[in-house]
Amino acid sequence: MAPPVGYWETLGFSPSSVDFCEPNFERSAWVAEPWNAASSLPYVALGLFGVCVANPMRRAPAAHGWERPAFALAYLLTAVIGAGSVALHATMIAPGQAADEAPMLLLNAVLVFILCELGSGAAALRRPWLPKAFAAASGAAVAVYARWRAFYEAFMTLYLLSIFCIVAGCARLAFGRAVGERTRRGLVKPLFVAAIGSYAVGGGTAWVIEFHFCALVRESVLGPAFLHPLWHVGALGGTWLCVQLLSAARVDACGEAPELRWRCGLPVAAYPAKAPRRAG
Question: Which of 77, 115, 133, 227 has the most neighbouring CB atoms within 10 Å?
Fold first, then answer.
């Protein structure tokens, strides 16, 4: 029997160059992978929550000009990734895939930028040219992605390279001397371990099983629907924890003792509630 055809392909859109273990359009011609699409929504919720409520840099001194927009952009891109992921899994067409994958590359670029400028002064960037350089590099990465979007390996290469840079930078903060010892032991190192556990051990394991053992999983009692949602949960948790790690390191670099608060059950590393003592 021929596989179900979704409504979106009848409009002339090219199919996505990647497919997942959850069967497509089994329940509806409008939604290809309902479980995968639904599990993308927390990205939107947590991203907007970060922008509007839980941005750890909301208490940053007004003189710290770059912190608020940089961290807010990281949260905003998290929400955009979620919306793009819903589009991809609901339609399984090329525009939906681009809406999911391109923001992932941009978010990683923002996190690398924050890593590079953690030790900058309060009012000015240590490398004033860096925003333009990162904008150009991000544009080039998206252009490369757009040119070879049909080759999923092109996206994965760019994505994994940026992930390697983020993990290496965060590991330096967690195990080196780039931050104060109290902050490193009390916040940065635990957040790093938790982020790796969530992203690599939790989400990454589900991703590997889905792409290499899908046939076996489809024949199991559990079925394939749970695998990609596990990746979504693990990757989102790792991203959130990574942003909190960077927040704690930035507060420490400005001469303050970062505090870990809980907002709606989520850990948030931020400036202390009182006014900062000095501008770093």
Answer: 227
How would you classify the pairing of strands 259-263 and 266-270? antiparallel
Predicted TM-score (pTM) of this structure: 0.88
pLDDT tens per residue across span 11-20: 778 888 888 8
The DSSP result for the chain, as a single string, is -PPP--TGGGGTPPBPS---SSPTTSS-SS-S-HHHHHTTHHHHHHHHHIIIII-GGGGS-TT-TTHHHHHHHHHHHHHHHHHHHHHHHHH-BHHHHHHHHHHHHHHHHHHHHHHHTTTS-SSS-SSTTHHHHHHHHHHHHHHHHHHTTT-HHHHHHHHHHHHHHHHHHHHHHHHSSSS-HHHIIIIIHHHHHHHHIIIIIIIIHHHHHHHHSHHHHHTSSS-STTHHHHHHHHHHHHHHHHHHHHHHHHHHHTT---EEEEETTEEEEE--SSPPS---
Residues of the chain with pLDDT under 70: 1-6, 10, 56-65, 121-124, 149, 221-222, 274-280
pLDDT by residue (tens digit) across 69-102? Answer: 889 999 999 999 999 999 999 999 988 998 998 8
107 close to 77: Cβ distance less than 8 angstroms: yes
The number of angstroms, rounded, from the C-alpha of 271 to the middle of its chain's C-alpha atoms is 22
Number of residues that make up the chain? 280
Q: Look at residue 280 in the predicted model and tell me its pLDDT.
A: 43
Backbone angles phi, psi at 259, to 5 degrees: -115, 145
CA-CA distance, 190 to 199, in Å (whole number)? 14
Q: Residue 18 CB: number of other CB atoms within 10 A?
A: 14
CA distances from 106 to 38, 59, 110, 163 (A): 23, 25, 6, 12
Give dist(CA 55, CA 57) in Å, integer: 5
